[in-house]
Write a structure and sequence with these properties.
mainly beta, Immunoglobulin-like, Neuraminidase, 2 domains, six-stranded mixed β-sheet, 38 strands, 45% strand, elongated
């Protein structure tokens, strides 16, 4: 009897048909529960009949002992022989007759093979069995400094830096210590090659107000005038708008605050659907985080929000404010401390499913950095799973490591960096579903891994940081199951 299956797992096309002896198929594999070694029985194992591999795609927690584990194996039909062969383990080697000793423990720290023979003895096959254990916590946000690259100012000790992503790549506008301006450009954030030139703008800019909208740049001059520029900073056009505050970019426009008849009112340019109104008394005038925008099936129009800031009375805020294209509202109060100069970053995190078999992905917003009311710089990372409606302190694995200095007013870019993995061994994989798109030729898989790049920021001593830091959720670097 022959079992015919169709699969796209590790295949060279979307669907490949192959044959496997049905009477030698392993239909299920799991691990027995162990009170002294929790988590074994919750591991979900995949059986790759095409390659003869049994493995847990979502590895067991770091530190799990797999040197004495009892497997539970079910076969598709009666077999005459089922021998487990161990080699290279830390506590045990040799063979175990699974049919005679189904409760015998197996050492999975080395190579383990299951050898099966059909009931009539005519044919046999074998499976490699791998019980994966995380060497590192998969949900740790791993950071490293790009030692080979800094934001390249023309002089030491720049006064201000603003870094954005445009269609041409990464663009940094730098105010040097003598007041002159520098443009630094790199096509990609990974292994950047910077082109550095002095630039002369027809006005004195507030560097930190620079924003990008549909590949056009917008910035406020020192006198508050709003200017529109090309993405390479070479051509500029003045508007008739004079603003006090730049809040950020919103769907084809920039939004801010201007003074009209002695009152501060919300502004938008080009004017779209904003309802002109006076700002609330406690609305921030400075120090708010970057403005981020989201849209999903529950929103009629895109919603933008920021957190923190300093109001007219000089007090820092713990409020998250949101804009739906027409009005500003208080989205959330609390959850984060009162602070100024924080950064909000869109990213991903994972939570285990109800059945415990997979890790489900969630889009999250991470808030980091900023200055607290005490004057100290914030080192705690806060996370929102519901688009700024609620904030909470992130788990310890998402917190910044000690080697990253505290900062405020930091810019960021989230960029997909291409990874390549070999598919010859199918047991260092992350379980589906997942966001990562991939390409494969059957031997190698290529996928885009989202990295966070941190640029600039103000350090505890008040100087401008020129180092670049890169972070990634460890789980996203694992070779994907396909």
């Amino acid at each position: 009897m022959v079992l015919s299956l169709a699969t796209s797992c590790n295949s060279k096309s979307d669907s490949e048909t192959f044959s496997f002896p049905a009477n030698l198929a392993v239909s299920s594999f799991s691990l027995a529960a162990d009170y002294h070694n929790p988590g074994l029985d919750s591991a979900y194992f995949s059986i790759d009949l095409q390659h003869g591999v049994i493995f847990n795609a979502d590895s067991l927690r770091k530190g799990t002992n797999v040197s004495k584990v009892v497997p539970k194996i079910t076969f598709n039909s009666t077999v005459s022989e089922a021998i487990i062969v161990m080699s290279g383990g830390t506590t045990r080697q040799g063979e175990v007759d699974y049919q005679k000793n189904p409760t015998d423990s197996i050492d999975f720290t080395g190579d383990v093979t299951l050898r099966i023979k059909a009931a009539d003895g005519s044919i046999s096959t074998s499976y490699r069995i791998k019980v994966n254990v995380h060497k590192e916590n998969p949900d740790t946000l791993i950071w490293n400094e790009l030692a080979s690259s800094r934001i390249p100012s023309r002089m030491s000790d720049p006064k201000a830096i603003r870094t954005l992503e445009t269609e041409e790549g990464i663009v940094s506008l730098i105010e040097e210590k003598d007041g002159s301006l520098t443009k630094a450009c790199s096509a990609t954030p990974e292994n950047p090659v910077w082109t550095v030139t002095e630039v002369n703008l027809p006005f004195a800019p507030r560097v930190r107000t620079l924003n990008v909208v549909d590949n056009d740049l917008w910035i406020l001059a020192g006198d508050g005038r709003l200017w529109k520029g090309s993405s390479d900073l070479s051509a500029w056009e003045a508007t008739d708008e004079y603003w006090d505050v730049m809040l950020g970019a919103y769907t084809g426009s920039v939004v801010g605050i201007r003074t009209e008849n002695g009152k501060r009112v919300f502004a938008q340019h080009p004017a779209l659907d904003l309802i002109p109104s006076q700002i609330p008394q406690d609305f921030p005038l400075s120090g708010m985080s970057n403005l981020v925008t989201l849209q999903n099936k529950w929103t009629v129009s895109p919603v933008a929000f920021f957190a923190g800031g300093v109001a007219a009375d000089g007090k820092s805020s713990d409020t998250t404010w949101a804009f739906d294209g027409s009005e500003w509202i208080r989205l959330c109060e609390g959850g984060v401390p009162a602070l100024q100069g924080a950064s909000i970053i869109p990213y991903y995190n994972y939570r285990r499913s109800a059945d415990g078999k997979t890790m489900n992905e969630y889009n999250v917003w991470m808030l980091l950095g900023g200055r607290l009311e005490s004057g100290e710089l914030n080192r705690t990372v806060y996370v929102s799973y519901d688009n700024g409606v609620n904030w909470a302190k992130g788990v310890s694995t998402l917190q910044l490591p000690a080697q990253i200095p505290a900062f405020m007013d930091c810019d960021h870019i989230v960029a997909d960096i291409e990874h390549t993995g070999n598919l010859s061994d199918a047991w260092t994989r992350i379980s589906k579903p997942m966001r990562l798109s991939y390409r494969t030729d059957g031997e190698y898989v290529i996928w885009d891994c989202p990295y966070i790049y941190l640029y600039g920021g103000i350090l505890p001593d008040g100087t401008v940081n020129t180092n670049i830091w890169r972070g990634v959720l460890n789980r996203l670097t694992f070779v994907p199951i396909i």
